[in-house]
Batch of 4 targets.
Target 1
Amino acid sequence: MKRINEYLSFFEAKEEPILSAEAYVIKGNRNYLFDFGNDISNIDKINSLNIYAAFVSHFHLDHIGQAKNIKCEHIYTSKFTSKYIEGSEIIDNLEINDGIKIEAISFPSGHAKGSLVLNINNEILLVGDGLYASKDGYNVSLLYDSIRVLKTINTKYVIMSHTNGEMNKIENVISDLENIYSKKEKGVPYIKVNDYGN
């Protein structure tokens, strides 16, 4: 497990032998998890942390593959993602103050329907794959909505999945997304670009 700061650590993303996103551990008075990942080798390590609640960014297998094997009292998902995880609790927005401030926010993403992002201590925003394009590119309308919501979130840094904890200033991320949005063409629903195209 790699440490980012005193309250945030993560189990690394992997591509082999199977694709797995990072699983982020948030330490407050109790331990919380953002995404389960899909790496079977992390199950015992995560379970040894006595996770109280897990938040799921979206329903893709690399983020939820180990959900059934990791023990926690609560699993918070969007309504759409709840279809993929038995026993999950549906939320749109939720704030927890437990020695740390955790704010789960419903997020409009062209990458995956029903995405959630997690703002920790108004300092670090975990977005999962929420800022990546779909295979068709960026949906113009959803990209506009993503930028609009990002501008309302009081935080300093953004961490996207599959970057092994790389932090980017939120103003730089918004600027990059606005630059992508500026490439929209009238009557064309998608913007094809290479940036943030995971």
Target 2
Amino acid sequence: MIKEKKIIPNNVRQFREELLMSKAELARKAGLSALTIDRVESGLQCRMDTMRKILLALGLKLTDKDRVFPES
């Protein structure tokens, strides 16, 4: 049985690009790998902790979660 990967659209790339930040820079600030950032921007599911790290690295508050991750 093949596990389907659910695509969940988000606005991480939009927020990152507005800050003129590279994936590598966001990954460094968030304490994550660039591959993780790439996967999240592609819409793959991620853990709540990963969302929290990305929000804070983008300079946002946790209350901004729905702006960045609207369908999670």
Target 3
Amino acid sequence: MLKILYFAGLREALGQSSEQLALPGGMGTVGQLHAHLAARGGAWEALAKTKNLRIAVNQQMAAMDAPLNDGDEVAFFPPVTGG
């Protein structure tokens, strides 16, 4: 089971801050999870449309080819600016 977290504008667009998802068979990378979630359509397309999307696995920044394992925590967040 993966714990998936959504932050900032993604949380608002999706209407949720987190979810639990069984790791689908054959899904082994962050990029595959990203594509799976975006393929839900509707508001979920925000994942595909967010430029410079940041992803962390177990609180470490991760690339799309990073491996996933059962029990991982995956966080998606758009770049944030401050001032």
Target 4
Amino acid sequence: MKNPIIHALWIGGFVFLNLFLWQEVLKGNALSVSFFGVGQGDASFIETPQRKQILIDGGPDATVLEKLGKVMPFWDRSIDLVILSHPAQDHVAGLLDVLKAYKVQNILWTGIEKETLVFKQWKEILAREQEEGARIFLAYAGQRLNLGENAPCPQRIDVLYPDSIAGTLVKGDDNDTSIVARLEFCGSSILFTGDLTKKGEKILLSQKASVDSDILKVGHHGSKTSSSAQFVEAVSPEVAVISAGRGNRYGHPNLETLETLARYGIEIRRTDEEGDIVFRFQ
């Protein structure tokens, strides 16, 4: 006679595996982008149809590990690419935990230094990751990362900012050294802006970069120091995503920014109101 407990566990495991496999099948050829609700910080996760996984920023603490556990199968302990937009606490701290918990193959960052404890830890972990085989790259305007080999349509990330000129003009404010990257997938596009302020936006626009995108990850958590009318108009997004913590002490997102976005008829999505925000593109 079969042990009823073992039989029940076997059935439960079989059902779980079937549900997971069906979930994977339903993903099909879709690209998914998740803006994680990690509190007052940024963390965005991209998964391509070829199952390439990219994490942009890690938020202010280890919350990002819980979020990754919801979008990645438990046996998957590797990430293809981690991008650090700039070394602010609310972008880099969670990445320290990610690099400890996952095997990361490639790391892209600006090389901008900061006199903080969390940055010191970042440099120490980078050195360890490099010893263990991770490839570490410095970002520069004009870089193109192809995401789909032999894909029938463009699947790529273009780094638009910063460049050497921006680096000299924004000295003293690492927000304006933030990596600005544009994701394109078969005609759909998302612009990631880190904590870029209006000063950085002006520099970026002066470079004649192609910023037009369907979705804008709003700079600096919706602060009034970002999202100038000229920049929002140039991006002309249908949707703006604001990553901010509920009841944060900075008052993000600022009313001025919300009014600018509303003036252009842009749909506003906020992690402080919704939690994780997910987009899927076929």
